[in-house]
Amino acid sequence: MSTPTTAPPQPAPQPAAPVAPAADTAAEAARRSRFSEGLHAPHRLFGWEFSLQQVVFSVVLVFCLTPWASPPLALALGLVLAQTVGNPFAQQTKGLTQKLLQFSVIGLGFGMNAHAAVQAGREGILFTVVSLVGTLGLGYFVGRWLGLGRTVVHLISCGTAICGGSAIAAVAPVLRAKDEEISVALGTVFVLNALALFAFPPIGHALALTQNQFGLWCAIAIHDTSSVVGAAAAYGAQALQVATTVKLARALWIIPVSICTALAFRQRGVKVKLPYFIAGFIAAMLLNTYVPAVRPLAPFITHLAKIGLTVTLFFIGAGLSARAIRAVGGRPFVLGVVLWVVISLSSLYVILHAA
């Protein structure tokens, strides 16, 4: 009886060798590393040591001092640098930004007339009170719905309702807020400020808003004074005057809101930070209106103030790196967007339909 023969086992088909992504990833990482090394590598010329990153930043900064640079363009250039080469002077620009903004606002006062400013302030006072109370109240309920902490919610709400980073900086010590809570609130406000600076002027032109209407809308619906002034300056001289006056009058609400915050959060022994630069703005405006000897210098000072504002926005943009934007997180950003959209649309509706 013959034994049946069995066919030898066939070798299993070999799968096609997969393309290893690790090699591509490693090559890409190597390219990024070489690019970073090239940016940061020190060079020496005439006894000075510098890097390519510092040279690029300095060249763009010098451009922002020229007449070809506008506040929106300066902000855009800062954002591009932040996402590409980075800011080699991050600590220095962070310290300069607030001071430069304050001096620029004071300088803009030399281009204002006190009588027109009083009229603009009267028109904006009702909008200010209603929008401030409404924003703080809405922020409380939306923040609870999102499950955010009270401190972050209050910081973002105050930044939206009053004057952005200045309000957050004033209220944070009253709340005894942690550094990460302050960073989240500032990051949210600055990102939305950047969007507003680009978005508002085209919307204003599309809706055929008058100079007065647009200035009022900017002052109410844009968080930070820098972006308010930048957007209004892009729209027109009268819009700039209305927006600056109403926004600074709005900023005075930092004082009562800070006091109420201390009471509501039961904080004792805290100091309320006063916005002294607003007094400087008022003094400059009064000098320009009532002291004839100042008027010949006023256009020059105003011009310097506008350059200072342009550089301020460049510094702000250069500080908004991808890491800083990611650090904001989803829920705080949702809160900021909801508050911003509501205050923008509601104030625009009232302005358009006001008698």
From TrEMBL:
Cell compartment(s), UniProt: Cell membrane
Keywords, comma-separated and alphabetical: Cell membrane, Membrane, Transmembrane, Transmembrane helix
Listed transmembrane segments: 55-80, 100-118, 124-143, 155-176, 182-202, 214-236, 248-265, 274-294, 300-321, 333-352
Primary site of residence: membrane
Ranges annotated as biased composition (Pro residues): 1-18
Disordered: annotated segments: 1-23
Membrane topology value: Multi-pass membrane protein
Alphabetized PANTHER family for the sequence: INNER MEMBRANE PROTEIN YEIH-RELATED, UPF0324 MEMBRANE PROTEIN FN0533
Family: Belongs to the UPF0324 family.
Name of the protein in question: Sulfate exporter family transporter
Organism field: Hymenobacter mellowenesis
Lineage of producing organism: Bacteria, Pseudomonadati, Bacteroidota, Cytophagia, Cytophagales
